[in-house]
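Input (structure):
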């Protein structure tokens, strides 16, 4: 018997044990209420005593104690059921770091930290001129890799694509620019296909490629500004998070010289 089955059994057992006194309590309260109404309607004036101008029923102490005891039983019963239910729910609800699809917790990276191995081996959904494939980033390990976070509704993103493609085309063996459209943008495959012609025009090769519908990278590099550029060094560490103004020919050269000083100035 696993944990969920055990908790379900305990909850059912407790509910069964206490349902009899609870039912008795409810039925007793109903009968007592009916008797009290009848008694009040037929009671003689002598059945009441005056106290602070309020009628008080005689000999009510015994019934009051019974009512209090049954109230206590009801509270205990509801508390037990609530506790068992909470344990059961906590056991059935997957934790954020449990590995269940859609609930994997990814710790954001800081500048200087090394990327996890999953970053390279994970299969991303890649859009390629209307088609989609699953690919890893293993082919770009050891290069200066820049992730360009963009959205279909971001005019600046679309306006700078051709310029940025031109910059990175000057360093084909050393640097690579990869577009990333995360789930946070609310874009879908259908949205991207609608502007396929505009995207192709902004690509030097006439073919537009981008990682799409991506959540893992969004968690690894939290971002709320578009376009946003994530700089990853050849050693596999995060070396920068910048805006579009920092993606220049001179900046790329500086990064390459800083990373590979033995190669000399670019």
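Output (sequence):
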């Amino acid at each position: 018997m696993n944990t969920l089955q055990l908790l379900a059994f305990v909850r059912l057992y407790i509910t069964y044990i206490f349902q009899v006194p609870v039912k008795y309590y409810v039925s007793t309260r109903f009968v007592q209420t009916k008797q009290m109404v009848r008694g009040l309607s037929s009671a003689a004036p002598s059945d009441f005593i005056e106290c602070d101008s309020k009628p008080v029923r005689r000999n009510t102490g015994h019934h009051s104690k019974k009512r209090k005891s049954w109230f206590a039983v009801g509270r205990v019963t509801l508390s037990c059921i609530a506790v068992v239910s909470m344990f059961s729910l906590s056991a059935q609800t997957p934790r954020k770091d449990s590995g269940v699809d859609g609930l994997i917790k990814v710790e954001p990276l800081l500048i200087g930290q090394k990327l996890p191995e999953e970053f390279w081996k994970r299969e991303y959904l890649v859009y390629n001129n209307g088609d989609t494939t699953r690919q890893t980033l293993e082919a770009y390990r050891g290069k200066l890799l820049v992730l360009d976070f963009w959205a279909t509704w971001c005019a600046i993103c679309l306006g700078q694509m051709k310029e940025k493609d031109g910059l990175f085309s000057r360093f084909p063996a050393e640097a690579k620019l990869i577009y990333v459209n995360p789930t946070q943008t609310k874009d879908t495959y259908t949205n991207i296909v609608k502007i396929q012609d505009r995207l192709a025009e902004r690509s030097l090769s006439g073919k537009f490629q981008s990682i799409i519908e991506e959540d893992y990278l969004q968690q690894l590099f939290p971002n709320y500004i578009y376009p946003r550029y994530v700089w990853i060094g050849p050693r596999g560490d995060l070396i920068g998070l910048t805006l579009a103004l920092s993606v220049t020919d001179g900046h790329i050269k500086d990064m390459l010289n800083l990373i590979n000083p033995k190669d000399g100035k670019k």
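Notes: The chain has two domains: 3-92, 117-263. Residues 3-42 form the longest helix (40 residues).
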